[in-house]
Amino acid sequence: MIFDDTRCELGEGALWHPVREALFWFDIHGHRLHGEGRTWQWHEAVSSAGWIDRDRLFVASGSGLWEMDLRHDTRRRVVALEEEDTGTRSNDGKADPWGGFWIGTMGRNGEEDRGALYRYYDGELRRLRAPMTVPNGLCFDRARGVGYVSDTPRHKVWRHRLDPATGWPIGEEELFLDLSDGPHGPDGATLDSEGRFWSAQWGSSRVACYSPEGHFLGEIPFPASLTTCPAFGGPGLDELFVTTGQEDFTDRQRDAEPHAGKTFCVPAMLNGQRVQGVPEPAVRLP
């Protein structure tokens, strides 16, 4: 079950690179990118990424969106992101099927309503929604023409209709999941090949699965309470990788959860049946 036993303070941003067939993920508070048995240190918090081509990633940080060359370890900032606000940082981000990249920001200490949701597309960074507290759960279903976003402390997930030509949101969003009557904080998410919504749930030691209509279908448990971000991967895209955290844990909590902060990999199963993901789309730069 343990894919990598590095104990991240806040593991996040799991990305299966479909060309390299490799997992990349972040330790936000450690300012590190992990993957392929390597670690890349950054000068600031980094949280999520998409892939541009075999050797380049599109990385979100507290000050901008970056083109990172893995071969030469070079970084070029493509666009600034709330650079003037030192009290915020990037959080969940993901590429959409049109070549855009969605990214959420949040207060560095999780302050209420300090965050926002943006999309970078065709050279333009546009703010889509504010205020938010902890934007999360970004994923996209081109076949159904929708995208998803959650706000973790509000325990809600929304769904947007997307323009079929450009991927920009159109019309009013709709509430997809309301989990406010329970302990499950919807964190990172991904979709499988049937459009089912897989949600890592902060504080709940699980990744839960919901139908495209929002019905609970099942869960996969993990030995860490702060499950943060799932990603389908492996040669058949039928394995589920999950990052976790140990943010703000006391020494007693760290001892009680010796696997907190590690990255896991399990067979992607739902009610005894193997599940398959879909390849992450590439980010397109102008």
Automatic annotation (TrEMBL):
InterPro entries for this protein: 6-blade_b-propeller_TolB-like, SGL, SMP-30
SUPFAM superfamilies tied to this protein: Calcium-dependent phosphotriesterase
Domain SMP-30/Gluconolactonase/LRE-like region, residue spans: 10-245
GO biological-process terms attached to the record: L-ascorbic acid biosynthetic process
Cofactor-binding details, from the entry: Binds 1 divalent metal cation per subunit.
GO-annotated molecular function: calcium ion binding; gluconolactonase activity
Domain of life: Bacteria
Keywords: Metal-binding, Plasmid, Zinc
Residues that bind substrate: R89, N91
Reported cofactor(s): Zn(2+)
Location of the active site: D187
Annotated positions binding a divalent metal cation: E12, N136, D187
One Pfam family here: SGL
Family: Belongs to the SMP-30/CGR1 family.
Name by which UniProt lists this protein: SMP-30/gluconolactonase/LRE family protein
Source species: Falsirhodobacter algicola
